[in-house]
Amino acid sequence: MTETPLRPARIVAAFGRSYLADTGEGPPRPCVARGKRSEVVCGDQVLLRLGQDPAVIETLLPRRNALWRQDAWRSKMFAANLDLVLVVTAAEPTPNLELVGRALIAAQSEDIPSALVLNKRELPGTARLREMLQPLQSAGYPIIEVSARQAPDEAAAILRQKLDGRIGMLIGASGVGKSTLVNALVPGLRIQTQAISAALNAGRHTTTATRLYMLEGLAPGSGLLDSPGFQAFGLNQLSVSQLQHAFPEIARLNGTCRFNNCTHRQEPGCAVRTAVEAGELATSRYALYLRVLQELLNEAETRPTA
Fold first, then answer.
1. Cβ atoms 29, 68 nearer than 8 A
2. Is position 221 annotated in a ligand binding site?
3. I want to staple 222 with a disulfide (CB 3.0 to 4.6 A). Which of 130, 138, 185, 218 is the partner?
């Protein structure tokens, strides 16, 4: 029997080993991965075998990038082939700037452009939060201020400009208004979510899945990837060198320390510590660097040797 030809597609919804794939023709198709364990994530480009229901993912094509978080207990890939990461924060609930900083590190380590979305700008605590975000803005991360609840059309228009021709991902802690932003950006979201739930046969559990919504009215290929909120972001997948390059303000100083293998902690002639002492590098950013660095060193010490 002749096998059906393979069709290129993009994964637009993922839950366990069940997926939806967009082939560019008709509605997304339900599909499954071969084998017991799947490494396919939302945003992946794949080759599908369509001659059965559900279709089968035969080949995972090479990724341009992938967004990860990893701690001592588990590793989690969010999405692949991103053009933009939008990290959402707000004055309420209490801002989790640790999570914001770590999400930016993860994106930077994969060379994915990032920006901050300061939501709920109408709240009285926004002025203080704006000051707290200043070190990130000085490091080169743009800050986009919106009010998804009070001015959803304006918020959608601003973010659609950023997403035109790009696949972007919204990430952030629970409660920062991410879902309200997604609702503003994706008309008919409830209908699309229900269709995904039915196709994946996953019911209410798809609220915990990652989904990619293509954005109409923008350049072809424009899309928004939505994922559940989270409260922790481990970075154990990084090497020390990757970490140093994931801080733009530290990366600019790499190679200027006395020692080539400087960890920027206690070594003499460290250009990074000199910049901190001179007020040219924010102490909050340097403190985050030291915290993540210590986690990586601890992980290296506990990793079993071959």
1. no
2. no
3. 218
Question: Does 283 appear as a known binding residue?
Answer: no
Residues 6+ positions from 182 with CB-CB distance below 8 Å: 170, 189, 213, 224, 226
Q: Considering its fold, how many domains does the chain have in total?
A: 3
Tell whether 94 is in a known binding site: no
How is residue 50 written in tokens? 């369509």
Neighbouring C-beta atoms of residue 196, cutoff 10 Å: 20
Q: 176: annotated binding-site residue?
A: yes
Identify which has the larger pLDDT, 306 or 267: 267
Tens digit of each residue's pLDDT (9 = 90 or more) over 52-72: 889 999 999 999 999 988 876
Q: Look at residue 188 and tell me whether its pLDDT is greater than 90.
A: no
Write out the two tokens for 167: 């696949």
36 marked ligand binding residue:
no
Say whether 203 counts as a known binding-site residue. no
Beta bridge partners of 139: none
| Cβ proximity of 225 and 278 under 8 Å | no
- Check whether 255 is labelled as a binding-site residue: no
Q: Is 270 annotated as a binding residue?
A: yes
Instruction: Domain of residue 20: give its range.
Output: 6-60
Beta bridge partners, 172, equal 88
Q: For residues 175 and 197, give the distance between their C-alpha atoms in angstroms, rounded to a whole number.
A: 23
**Stated pTM of the model:** 0.90
Q: Assess contact for 6 and 21: CB atoms under 8 A.
A: no
> Phi first, then psi: what are they for 287, rounded to 5°?
-65, -40
Distance between CA atoms of 21 and 32, rounded to whole angstroms?
A: 10
The verdict on whether residue 173 carries a ligand-binding annotation is: yes
Rounded Cα–Cα distance for residues 172 and 228 (Å): 8
What CATH number does the domain containing 76 carry?
Answer: 3.40.50.300
